[in-house]
Amino acid sequence: MNIAIIGTGYVGLPSGIGFAKLGHNVTCVDINKSKIHSLQNGILPIYENNIEQLFLEVVNENLTFTTSYSCINEADIVILAVGTPQSNNSEKADLKYIFEAINEICKNLRDKNKYFILATKSTVPVGTGDKIEQIVHKINPNIEVVSLPEFLREGYALEDFYNPDRVIIGSNSDKASKAIKELYSHIDSDKILITTRKSAELIKYASNSFLAMKIHFINEIADFCEKSGANIGDVALGIGLDSRIGNKFLNVGPGFGGSCFPKDTLAMLGMAKELGVGVSLIETTIKGNNDRFKKIANNIKDMLKDIDNPKIGILGLAFKNGTDDCRQSPAIEIIKEFIKNYQNINVYDPRAINNAKGILNDNVNYTNSIYECANECDLLVILTEWDEFKDIDFLKLKDCIKVKKIYDTRNIINFNEAKKYGFDVINIGVKN
Ligand code: UGA
């Protein structure tokens, strides 16, 4: 099939690489000239696990990059994968990039009768597909507008692309659904669900809201453990063994972040308000998660209150492991909470330093390793769950002068091993 993908971000790019690797002819379009120039020259603008090798195999073969929308004229399927960030002045998603892309598609369409599918992978409010259809049908009534929500996780994008839990196709048209099913012929048919367009749009928001809620829930249970003396590791394990609950997304931490959960829960709240529907669980989740950043920052301040001009080492800046993405990263939000109070903050992240520099500027010292970061620190704080941090060499860490205390907000380091080397480890969800 000929596929045009609009948007080369964390969704469009891995999807483009994945479809190209399956043998489709894929053209990725983006208005960002320097990004397209890099991609044409074999340089990836994002970090993703295991993506580089696949990219190099298909780039400039059956995967090409352009800033021109004219490729839509050859496409059987045009996939919208542009960003839908949160609006500056409301909870709603900002659909500016969606409608700019639709406008370009309409402008560049040569054959006004050509049949093709316009599939929306971007996360869009319920009813957006109808609006898109109204606009494009004025130009060409043969375009089939489909909702094709994306569920891949950053850092695991290709893994999720090849082996998703499900593919949701939001369409009333048998012809369009059949074509999309063909596009996903590498997926078992029992994982493919065809719904109405609006239901597909809501499935995306409801899924992200539920997962965000699950994380917030376990973080609240962790707070309960800290006061009551129960242990969150045991409790999460015990809860997760119930197959109705499941063991995934029960990892405690400093709160959820990223470019999806925070904005999608807010957008869900915005949509619900507009419809006059109560979504109190989601509302509580949003507030609770924001409060959590402050709570963790206050815990850090508390741990340092008796030290003059303390030095802090922060391990982790990305919003989670496996990505260089710092958008709405809990680590960044927490650092912002205490940056005014301290002059000596070392930070380290295996992938996200460059992106963090654009946010934290020169308010922190960027370092190149765990041990450089930890050197002479009064407190070492783990904020992102990178594997590298799980494997800290405590003997080497011991040589870093002063470090005695580790605040592990992801509960990832080997507690007993750290204790053996004399470190005082403070975990989440354990009475310390
Ligand atoms: C999320 C969803 O998981 C994807 O299914 C969805 O496609 C994507 O949003 C999207 O809408 O595009 P992603 O934002 O990449 O994916 O990240 P997650 O792996 O879901 O993690 C989100 C946040 O929750 C991170 O800050 C992570 O550290 C945190 N988290 C996750 C926890 O604190 N505990 C957990 O158990 C799981």
Quick summary:
This protein is α/β, with parallel strands linked by helices and 432 residues long. It has 17 helices and 14 strands. 43% of the residues lie in helices and 14% in strands.
Describe this entry's structure for a reader:
- It contains 17 helices and 14 strands.
- It has 432 residues and is α/β, with parallel strands linked by helices.
- The protein folds into 2 domains: 2-195, NAD(P)-binding Rossmann-like Domain (Rossmann fold, 3-Layer(aba) Sandwich); 231-432, Rossmann fold (3-Layer(aba) Sandwich), CATH 3.40.50.720.
- The strands form 3 sheets. A 6-stranded parallel beta sheet has the order 3-2-1-4-5-6, sandwiched between helices. A 6-stranded parallel beta sheet has the order 11-10-9-12-13-14. Strands 7-8 form a two-stranded parallel ribbon.
- Strand 7 (167-170), helix 7 and strand 8 form a beta-alpha-beta unit.
- The longest helix is centred in the middle third of the chain and has 32 residues, at 197-228.
- The radius of gyration is 23 Å and the shape is globular.
- The structure holds uridine-5'-diphosphate-glucuronic acid.
- The site of uridine-5'-diphosphate-glucuronic acid has 21 residues, from helix 8.
- Tell me the helix content: 40-55%
Number of domains: 2
Radius of gyration: 23 Å
CATH level-1 class of the largest domain: Alpha Beta
The distinct ligands, each listed once, are:
uridine-5'-diphosphate-glucuronic acid
User: In what range is the share of β-strand residues?
Assistant: 5-15%
What is the architecture of the largest domain at the second tier of CATH? 3-Layer(aba) Sandwich
Q: What spatial order of strands do you see in the largest sheet? A: 3-2-1-4-5-6
What gap, in angstroms, lies between the N and C termini?
Answer: 58 Å
Question: What is the averaged pLDDT score?
Answer: 96
